[in-house]
C-alpha cells in the first residue's frame, strides 16, 4: 500500500538537506497518515480510508464524507 492519502492524493515530499558545508543529501518528509473508519451519513455506510491529518480536519470542517466529495469534485476527475 502506497503512502498516499486516499482523499487528497498527497504524497511524501522529497528534497535536499543542506549542511553547513553545503553538502546535499536526500531527505523525505513523510505524511501524517491515519487509517480511519469514516461514517457517510447520506449512504449510511462506514468506509475505511487511509487519510492524512489535514484531510481529517477538512472532513470535520465540511461536515462529512459526502459533502467533502461534492465540494472537492475536481480532485477526483
Quick recap of the structure?
The chain is of the alpha+beta class and 77 residues long. The chain has helices at residues 53-62, 65-71, and strands at residues 13-18, 24-29, 33-40, 45-52.
Helices and strands, with pairings:
Blueprint: E1 13-18, E2 24-29, E3 33-40, E4 45-52, H1 53-62, H2 65-71
Antiparallel strand pairs: 1-2, 3-4
Would you mind describing this structure in some detail?
With 77 residues, the chain is an alpha+beta fold. It has one domain (13-76): Ribosomal protein L28/L24 (Ribosomal Protein L24e, Chain: T), CATH 2.30.170. Helix content is 22%, strand content 36%. The chain has two helices and four strands. Strands 1-2 form a two-stranded antiparallel sheet. A two-stranded antiparallel sheet has the order 3-4. The chain is elongated, with a radius of gyration of 16 Å.
What form results from the Cα inertia axes? elongated
The N- and C-terminal alpha carbons lie at a distance of 22 Å
Label the structural class: alpha+beta
Q: Please give the number of β-strands.
A: 4
Question: What is the highest CATH level, the class?
Answer: Mainly Beta
- In CATH terms, what is the fold-level topology? Ribosomal Protein L24e, Chain: T
Question: What level of helicity do the residues show?
Answer: 10-25%
The multimeric state of the shown protein is single chain
